[in-house]
Specification:
By secondary structure, the protein is an alpha/beta fold. It folds into 3 domains: 2-74, Winged helix-like DNA-binding domain superfamily/Winged helix DNA-binding domain (Arc Repressor Mutant, subunit A); 86-138 and 267-292, no CATH class; 159-254, D-Maltodextrin-Binding Protein, domain 2. It is 39% helix and 23% strand. It has 10 helices and 13 strands. The protein has helices spanning 2-10, 13-20, 24-38, 54-62, 64-74, 92-109, 122-130, 192-204, 217-225, 271-283; strands at residues 43-46, 49-52, 86-90, 115-119, 136-139, 148-157, 159-163, 183-187, 209-214, 231-233, 246-250, 256-264, 290-292. The protein has a 6-stranded mixed β-sheet with strand order 4-3-5-12-6-13, sandwiched between helices. A 3-stranded antiparallel β-sheet has the order 10-7-11, with helices on one face. The chain has a two-stranded antiparallel sheet with strand order 1-2. Helix 1 packs across helix 2 (13-20) and helix 2 (13-20) packs across helix 3 (24-38). The longest helix has 18 residues, at 92-109.
Length: 293
């Protein structure tokens, strides 16, 4: 059972052997004995790595209370004593409007766990996950990059944010045609959302008047609050708690955003990463702008 747990966490027999202080052959024998006992394959072998099957992951989850009990009996925190900190990377808007509070609560509820939080732009997040410098990322960006796997957990729909008192405030729903000639804050062209909105306007024959371009949701909303114009934006999580001096209306366009966990392709998340993902998914409060995926 220890071998199974170490294999799921490290992904290789060498890593599992190092973690348990035994030989690599001992890990292989233990795995073979366990598979014979349960009567099914628990891991798939692929180019020197072993990938746990769904059955192995279910069994590993069921082992949590067993090892917690053993730790109490032996007076040693086996599951956490030597556990490396969770290396987490998140873009600024998601970090300051959602993740930091989740990190604080998670660590308070899980004494002995540790976490390293880095706040960087999405392109740095992607490269860091690819280089295995981080264990887990969270982002609402539309990433299309081989080598990273997105696990969506929240979905939201585009909205139109405008300064309080704006003429469009009288409408219940904003259509693309309503933005003809309207002063607008847009996102930089290197961001995926800009290409989507430009295609939408081109199909509708609409030409808003771009007065500013920016890279983050918070910057766009601050410019809106200053009265420079309107913006089309992902409302989760930045608008979940409301924002003073800003009016929000649904935007009539099939633009959705998935807020996702970001993991390296071909590697199972560490036990601590899985615990944090489960905690975030379970404790996200309901809001009017997003829904569980």
């Amino acid at each position: 059972m220890e071998a199974l747990r170490a294999l799921v966490t490290t992904g290789t027999t060498i890593g599992a052997a190092r973690r348990l202080g035994v030989s690599q052959s001992s890990i292989s024998r233990a795995l073979a004995q366990l598979e014979a006992r349960v009567g099914r394959n628990l891991f798939l072998r692929n180019s020197g790595r072993i990938e746990p099957t769904p059955a192995a992951l279910r069994l590993n989850d069921q082992l949590d209370p067993l090892f917690e009990t053993l730790a109490l009996i032996e007076g040693a925190e086996w599951a956490a004593a030597d556990e490396e900190p969770l290396r987490l990377i998140v873009p600024p808007t998601l970090a300051h409007n959602f993740v930091i509070s989740r990190v604080a609560t998670f660590l308070k509820q899980n004494t002995g766990k540790s976490l390293r939080l880095d706040i960087q732009a999405t392109d740095v997040l992607v490269s860091g996950i690819l280089d295995l410098r981080y264990d887990l990322g969270l982002t609402s960006a539309m990433i299309q990059r081989s080598g990273v796997k997105l696990v969506p957990w929240r979905r939201s729909h585009v909205v139109c944010a405008m300064p309080r008192g704006h003429p469009l405030e009288q409408k219940d729903i904003i259509a693309p045609s309503d933005l003809e000639g309207v002063e607008m804050i847009e996102f930089l062209r290197r961001l995926g959302t800009r290409a989507i909105t430009e295609q939408l306007f081109a199909r509708s024959g609409v030409r808003p008047r771009t007065v500013a371009e920016t890279a983050t949701n918070m910057a766009a909303l601050e410019l809106v609050r200053e009265g420079l114009g309107v913006t089309l934006i992902n409302p989760f999580p930045v608008l979940s708690g409301g924002m003073s001096d800003i009016t929000v209306r649904p935007f009539d366009a099939p633009i959705t955003y998935d807020t996702s966990f970001v993991l390296p392709t071909g590697r199972q998340p560490s036990e601590l990463a899985r615990q944090f993902m489960h905690f975030v998914t379970r404790t996200t409060p309901p809001d009017e702008y997003s829904e569980a995926v």
